[in-house]
Structure formats: C-alpha cells, structure tokens
TrEMBL record:
PANTHER family: 6-PHOSPHO-BETA-GLUCOSIDASE ASCB-RELATED (PTHR10353:SF122), GLYCOSYL HYDROLASE (PTHR10353). This is 6-phospho-beta-glucosidase. The keyword Hydrolase applies. The active site is at residue 379. It comes from the Bacteria. Belongs to the glycosyl hydrolase 1 family. It comes from Enterococcus saccharolyticus subsp. saccharolyticus ATCC 43076.
Length: 481
C-alpha cells in the first residue's frame, strides 16, 4: 500500500474554534461568538441544530455571566508562530485553516476591508510558507458576520451574495502569491439543518424556516460559483473546492425499503455537492421541494452561473457512518450533526459517534464514482477525553488506533483507483468543540492546557500521537504502526 508522491498530509482547524482575540484589531461579531458553553451530563444529547432568534443573539451579546469559549479559542491569534512550528515539526505538507470573514469585514457589508485583519493572515501564511507548508484556506467556516444576520437575515437575502463575492475577491487578491488551495463553504449541507450557524438565519425573521434555509443554500451555491470564477481569474494556478459533511448511511437490512431509505439519505446529503460539482439542481429534489412547499427563487442567469462555477475538487469531513431504516424503532446513538440508529458491528467514541474506518473507504468510492474529480479528506479524527500523566505525558493510543485504521482504508481506496489529494485530520491541536463549545472533547496531536471553563496556562505539549503522525508523514503513509 502507498500514497502518491505529493500527497498533502496535514491538519485542520477553524478560526472560530482556535483563534480567539474576540473583537481585537477591528474584528466584528460572528455567529460563533454567541455560542455559550453549557455543561452537559450526557454530551450525546446536545444538538448543534438549535435555531436562534434575535432575542437569543441580544442575550448573548449582553450576557456578563455566561462562558463563550469561541471568543477566546486557544489564542492562536497570539501564538501562531509556536503552533505552526509544531506543525512543521510533525512534517505538515498543508495546514487547513479558515479566514474569519468578520475579521476582514467586521459587519460583513463594508466597502473597504479591515487592514489589521488582512495583516494577521499575511503573517500566518508567511509563517506556514517559511516551513514549506501549503495553506489550505476555507473562506467561510461557521464565522458568519453577525451584522449580516441582523441586517439581512444572513444568506436568506440575495444581497449577501455580493458581500461574499467582495470578501472573496479581496482575500484572493491579497493572498494570491501565498495560497494555492481554497475551499468555499465548510460543510455547506449544514445550511439545510440549521440556518444560523453557517447562514446567519434568525428563526423569528422568517415564517418558513425550511424555505429560508434552502433559499439560503441557493444563494450560497451562487456565492460559491462566483468565488470559483474569481479564484480562477485572480489565481490561475490555484485550485478551489467545495466541502461537505459526509453522512454515509447504510441500509439497516436487505429489506428493499431500507435500501431506498439509504438512497434518500444520499439525496439529502449529496444534493449540495451535486450542484457544486455537476453544476445543476438534481431532479430528485423536485419531490422534496414540493412535499415541503419550498419554492427556490431564482433570477435570470443563476443556472448558467452554477454551470460555469463548478469546483475543481471535492473535500469533505468524515467521522462516522450511520444507519438508514424504514423502521423508526431501535437504539439511537449520537453523531456528527445528526444521530443515527446504533450499528451493532461498530464501536463508539466517548461521545457516542460510531467508529467505522471501512465506511471511509466506502465513501471514497461512492464519491469518486459519482463525481470523477479529485477528493480531499479535510476532517477526520477522534474526539476523546485525554488524561495527562504525572510526568506530563499523554498516551492516546486510542487516537492512533482510530487514525491508523482510517489511513489503511484510504490507502486501499487509492490502490483501487480513487484519486485522493490529501488528508488533514480535524483539530490537529486541541481546540473548542464546534457542537458543544467544550474543550474536553479533544482531537489534537498537541495538548492545550485549558479546561471547559477557559482555565489553564494554554501551554502546548505533545501527545504520543504527535510522534506517530510525524512518522506517518515522513514515510508518506508507509509506516503507520
């Protein structure tokens, strides 16, 4: 088994979960800044998909007592040199990070960018390039400007498209000599599950939330297409991809009705990548829209823009698989964004997510067969409770086992003909959880001394997985033991 020469090994993060520096140097509010930490006895019961209202936002902005971890992250903003040096020590070929849109345009709709924000990313990219690390940059990763949510109800408004295109063009022009790999929207399909997190949609500003979410998806498709065209124009040698939260759903049994449920699950999941890669709306969505009384408002030229603005490659997150069933009875378990029936053949993480390395290989084959474009795994990993020993060591064999098993399946998929560009495990350094805003759900190779309430020294230390992943990269995946 082997990986192709030039395979992009690295790690993945998001600005809202690790930068910190809340409102510093001119940064504006983002939707992530309103996410309050709430201690849960059972983390599997948390839902990332809760709607938000104008009153909820006002409460969060005025709240003096709550803990809002995404406002301080792990202080990458002031520690980026130390952190990137650790990534370089591991041998990263690429580092996935996002630009915070409200750090560049504080309210989202300014005509001129915030120079201090632009300078920060100049420094970060320069630091990466100093070590030969290629930045892989997401334009929008759950850092939607709160100003646009309050003023326009986010991506429900067509006006947001122009603001996004302006932002994209500004960063493409600024970093055209530094960044060659770009992504448009992180896990774009989440807009169909919750309007607020990635889309800035406030539930009290619409009478038909599902209609608003799919209208917002249409506007994001157009924004993505415009960003693709701008990227190709401004940085001709760059590659720009989409990003999907992959929900691999197996039929529970050989009952044909269960098989159909798995097909419907793929329709719900892959609708977004179908549009961004194929360039048109799939026919299977007609029935869904009719059933839910959704009418997508389009303007002349929209369909042509979608055809012209298809992405160069497909990236996705994969943490687990799920079950599709025509029978609603059965034991449930938690998952990334959505829960599922429990699969008796799989083990689960501390948070109830089902661990399925072979499912990654299944996904790689299904996506490559469907699209025939290069694939990039930009999120994968194990969230777990790490224990620091008395001597400071952290023995995370469970994380090594998880990743070894997934990398083996990646190698097999490549051997079987899949074109895979790279692999950036999620949370390569411990950061704030997207779903629960807690710190104790750790993914990293690098431990950060901070607890769920924000207490700690922020000191960085290496887990056992650090040296293991360093060896994997150094051997281009040949030595994963």
């Amino acid at each position: 088994m082997g990986f192709p020469e030039g395979f992009l090994w690295g790690g993945a993060t998001a600005a809202n979960q690790f930068e910190g520096a809340f409102l510093e140097d001119g940064k504006g509010w983002s939707t992530a800044d309103t996410a309050r930490y709430t201690k849960l006895d059972d983390p599997t019961k948390f839902s990332l998909l809760q709607p938000m209202t104008t009153a909820d936002v006002a409460f969060a902005q005025a709240d003096q007592d709550g803990i809002y971890p995404k406002r301080y992250g792990i202080d990458f903003y002031h520690r980026y040199q130390e952190d990137i040096a650790l990534f370089a020590e591991m041998g990263f070929k690429t580092f996935r990070l996002s630009i915070s849109w409200p750090r560049i345009f504080p309210n989202g709709d300014e005509l001129e960018p915030n120079e201090a924000g632009l300078q920060f990313y100049d420094k970060v990219f320069d630091e990466c390039l100093k070590y030969g690390i290629e930045p892989l940059v997401t334009l929008s990763h759950y850092e939607f400007p709160l100003g646009l949510a309050l003023k326009h109800n986010g991506w429900e408004s067509r006006e947001t498209i122009a603001h996004f295109e302006r932002y994209a063009r500004v960063v493409f022009n600024r970093y055209k000599d530094k960044v060659k790999y770009w992504l448009t929207f992180n896990e774009i399909n989440i807009i169909g599950m919750t309007g607020y997190l990635s889309g800035g949609i406030l539930a009290d500003k619409t009478d038909h939330l599902l209609q608003a979410q799919y209208q917002a998806a249409h506007h994001q498709f157009l924004g993505s297409a415009l960003a693709v065209k701008a990227c190709h124009e401004i940085i001709p040698d760059a590659k720009i991809g989409n990003m999907l939260a992959r929900m691999e759903a197996y039929p529970e049994t050989s009952n044909p009705n269960d098989v159909m449920e798995s097909i419907y699950a793929d329709h719900t999941n892959l609708f977004y990548s179908d549009v961004q890669i194929r360039g048109y709306y799939p026919a299977y969505m007609d029935k869904f829209f009719k059933k839910h009384q959704i009418v997508i408002q389009k303007e002349a030229g929209d369909d042509q823009l979608l055809r012209e603005g298809t992405v160069d490659f497909m990236s996705f997150s994969y943490y687990m698989s799920s079950i599709a069933s025509s029978d609603t009875e059965g034991e449930e378990t938690a998952g990334n964004l959505l829960g599922s029936k429990k699969n008796p053949y799989l083990k689960s993480s501390d948070w109830g997510w089902q661990i399925d390395p072979v499912g990654l290989r299944v996904t790689l084959h299904k996506l490559y067969d469907r699209y025939q474009v290069p694939l990039f795994i930009v999120e994968n990993g194990l969230g777990a409770k790490d224990v620091v020993e008395e001597d400071g060591s952290i023995h995370d064999d469970y994380r090594i086992d998880y990743m070894r098993d997934h990398i083996q399946e990646m190698a097999l998929a490549i051997e079987e003909g899949v074109d895979l560009m790279g692999y950036t495990p999620w949370g390569c350094i411990d950061l704030i959880s997207a779903s629960t805003s807690e710190m104790s759900k750790r993914y990293g190779f690098i431990y950060v001394d901070q607890d769920d309430e924000g207490n700690g020294t922020l000191a960085r230390s290496k887990k056992d997985s650090f040296e293991w992943y360093k060896k994997v990269i150094a051997t281009n995946g040949a030595d994963i033991e």
